[in-house]
Amino acid sequence: YKNPHYAPGRSTMVHLFEWKWNDIAAECENWLGPHGYGGIQVSPPNENLVIWSKRRPWWERYQPMSYQLTTRSGNEQQFASMVRRCNNAGVRIYVDTVINHMTGTWSENVGTGGNSADFNNFHYPAVPYGRNDFNWPECKIQESDYRCCANRVRNCQLSNLKDLNQGTEHVRQMIVGFMNRFIHMGVAGFRIDAAKHMWPRDLRVIYNRLYNLNTAHGFPAGARPYIFQEVIDLGGEAVSRDEYTPLAAVTDFKFGMELSRAFGGGNQLRYLHNWGPQWGLLAHSDSLVFIDNHDNQRSHGAGGNILTHREPRPYKGAIAFMLAHPYGEPQLMSSFFFHNTEAGPPMDNSGNIISPSFNTDNSCGNGWVCEHRWRQIAQMIQFRNVAAGTTFNNWWDNGSNQIAFCRGGQGFVAFNKDSWDLNATLQTCLPAGRYCDVISGFKRGNCCTGKTITIGNDGRAHISLGANDYDMVIAIHRGEQS
Ligand code: AAO
Q1: Which of 88, 160, 227, 291 supports an S-S bond with 248, CB 3.0-4.6 Å?
Q2: What is this structure's pTM?
Q3: 234: Cβ below 6 Å to ligand 1?
Q4: Whose CA is nearest to atom 4 of ligand 1?
């Protein structure tokens, strides 16, 4: 369950938060496939409660009404067609799976598929679920429960959402059936929302009943789905990430917190020389890593002090570090702009999501940020793919915030977060030649539109990275020699 099963030569997943299935299919063909992306996390595809009283917030999608595949992102047919088109473009789909709970506190009670439920009687006819399928008696998770009481974290309600009992056979069957439909359609895996709030022993039963990935969609025979479990563990809580790593991969929230601190200014870059488990991060093969996610970029979940697209210079630095460094299975966030943390995606007056538009410089319009299209980010995907399987070597630092490292004869990267210029001749692990910096530009014909770095026969190169340069990174690799 820890292998994402990316197509050969690819890496890195992007969360296309609140995108519509038809738009994702086109993005696979037009951008993600050609740029070497490995996969996409899609927003929950199953029917959710429609919440007009909060002007259709993004979080209504975390309130399941049924397992029918109709949402603002599209219907089942559109979902299936997206999976097929993305797989054909070499890009895998991972489903955000909300199986801990059902909706149940709101005065409104109609879902995106037109179904309804009787919350007071725990009756969800479109699944169907009834009273015996939920933990009983009802209790609500309090902030203090996280420290003391694993039982309450697992058996009480998260945000007042009706808490399913995955220990019952009927609930297991409904969830397994729901997930297996996706595998049949060709998805490569799942994000398990709120995994911390479910018992590992129940999740194990569910995972073990999942089909192998569909060979008709290009997966090898016997491949198990990739599963990454959302467990927020910054230490000191009753529920630990270590209870979940024996099952499948786990989201590592420390990763983004520490890199945000380093690139945001709270910690010196030189300390990153031993980045990885020595920082208290998960073992490499257990971790799904990211800078920000859809929750903490708007102070939900593990909240605060996370770099996002709103601080582009340090954010691009942190992402370049994440993608250049071999540690962890990286995930990127692709956002929409918001002022209000509850606001839903760009939508019209009827609540329909408005598709992104695309500008001639490849950026997006209509309210979409599209971090995955930023040159400095997209071109680091190729860096990671070229450097795959190589070692981490030739670490250099200046004793504060200028650092550099090399990737086994394939790539070299340098960062300057100091308030003075970096001007140094550094040892790389690359063969002699002229390379295009993929951060400040790209290779066009035999020239670089940005900086050119020349590596001598001794493998050394003069690196200059001004304190006031547009970006704090230069990155070169074997795929972009001029
Ligand atoms: C909405 C309304 C609620 C309403 C509810 C029901 O906001 O007022 O009661 O509907 O009608 C999302 C939104 C919620 C939304 C929900 C349903 O974020 O606001 O509720 O949809 O529409 C916990 C969980 C974690 C969860 C996170 C948000 O453990 O699983 O809360 N994330 C996922 C999704 C998320 C979604 C759901 C789950 C629900 O990614 O989008 O919610 O499907 C501690 C614990 C964490 C805990 C946080 C927040 O964290 O460790 O496990 O996350 O508290 O309660 C420091 C600490 C850190 C601590 C943090 C906050 O950073 O180091 O450990 O402070 O105290």
Answers
A1: 227
A2: 0.98
A3: yes
A4: 159
Asked whether the ipTM of the predicted complex exceeds the cut of 0.90, the reply is yes
Pick the residue whose CA is nearest to atom 22 on ligand 1.
59
Q: Is the CB of 85 under 6 A from ligand 1?
A: no
Q: Which of 18, 145, 193, 471 is catalytic?
A: 193
Cβ of 105 less than 6 Å from ligand 1: yes
pLDDT in tens, 290-325: 999 999 999 998 867 899 999 999 999 999 999 999
437 among known catalytic residues? no
The predicted-structure confidence for 343-357, as pLDDT tens digits, reads as follows 999 999 999 999 999
Query: How many angstroms is it from 140 CA to the middle of ligand 1?
Result: 13
pLDDT tens for 76-128 read 999 999 999 999 999 999 999 999 999 998 899 999 999 999 999 999 999 99
Average predicted confidence (pLDDT) for the chain? 97
Q: What is the pLDDT of residues 165-187, one digit of tens each?
A: 999 999 999 999 999 999 999 99
Residue 265: its pLDDT value, please?
85
* pLDDT value of position 304: 72
At 223, list the tokens.
């491949």
Going from the Cα of 302 to the center of ligand 1, the distance in angstroms, rounded, reads 8
Interval 384-400: pLDDT, tens: 999 999 999 999 999 99
Atom of ligand 1 nearest to the CA of 61: 22
> Of the residues 296, 300, 335, which should be mutated to test ligand 1's pocket, given the most ligand atoms within 8 Å of the CB?
300
Q: Which two tokens stand for residue 73?
A: 């992102």
Q: What is the tens place of the pLDDT at every residue in 51-74?
A: 999 999 999 999 999 999 999 999
